[in-house]
């Protein structure tokens, strides 16, 4: 003869609901960041001198994606950008169609408060792989751009 013990079934259902609620809360924490706008920064390839970067991002097809162009060394090289915001404020950017024949994959960490992306990149050109680090800041002007205006310069 079976006895009815609904206690374990109720505990399993409650645990399932709690896990589902936690998953929904975790997904909600990664709010879509607004990448649209002008970004400037620098990149340093291992063993090379720093390179200036300038990028213009536009909205992608979904809320956490963006597209645009990135220019290095004042126009020396230009690439097409396709980026995506991932979980835990991570960003992956694919730079393709570069005028110097390279393809670059960027893995970075987004700081939404400072509006910066910092991380590492892998550059592939003619079958050779080169690595380095980078930093991009949203809406930032080149260093010293406001030296003639003391109210706008950085202290």
Describe this entry's structure for a reader.
By secondary structure, the protein is mainly beta. The chain has a domain at 37-138: Lipocalin. It is 15% helix and 46% strand. It contains one helix and eight strands, in the order H-E-E-E-E-E-E-E-E. Strands 1-2-3-4-5-6-7-8 form an eight-stranded antiparallel barrel. Strand 4 and strand 5 form a beta hairpin. The longest helix is centred in the N-terminal third of the chain and has 23 residues, at 7-29. The radius of gyration is 22 Å and the shape is globular. It starts with 6 loop residues before the first helix and ends in a 17-residue tail after the last strand.
Sequence of secondary-structure elements:
HEEEEEEEE
**Gyration radius over CA:** 22 Å
Physical arrangement of strands within the biggest beta sheet: 1-2-3-4-5-6-7-8
In total, the number of strands is: 8
Structural class, by secondary structure, is mainly beta
What kind of sheet is the major sheet? 8 strands, antiparallel, barrel
What would you say the CATH architecture of one domain is?
A: Beta Barrel
**What characteristic shape results from the CA principal axes?**
globular
Alpha-carbon distance between the two ends: 82 Å
Strand content: over 45%
Quickly name the level 1 CATH class of one domain: Mainly Beta
Q: What is the element layout, followed by pairings?
A:
Blueprint: H1 7-29, E1 37-45, E2 51-59, E3 65-72, E4 77-85, E5 90-96, E6 103-111, E7 116-125, E8 128-138
Antiparallel strand pairs: 1-2, 1-8, 2-3, 3-4, 4-5, 5-6, 6-7, 7-8
């Amino acid at each position: 003869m079976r006895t009815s013990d609904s206690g374990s079934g109720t505990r399993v259902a409650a645990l399932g609901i709690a896990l589902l609620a936690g998953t929904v809360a975790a997904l909600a924490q990664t709010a879509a960041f607004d990448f649209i706008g002008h970004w400037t920064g620098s990149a340093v390839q291992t063993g090379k001198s720093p390179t200036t970067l300038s990028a213009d991002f536009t909205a992608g097809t979904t809320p956490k994606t963006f597209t645009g162009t990135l220019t290095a060394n004042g126009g020396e090289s230009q690439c097409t950008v396709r980026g995506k915001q991932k979980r835990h404020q991570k960003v992956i950017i694919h730079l393709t169609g570069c005028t110097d024949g390279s393809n670059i994959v960027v893995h970075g960490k987004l700081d939404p408060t400072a509006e910066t992306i910092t991380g590492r990149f892998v550059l592939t050109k003619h079958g050779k792989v080169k690595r380095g680090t980078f930093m991009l800041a949203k809406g930032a002007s080149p260093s010293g751009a406001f030296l003639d205006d003391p109210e706008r310069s950085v202290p």
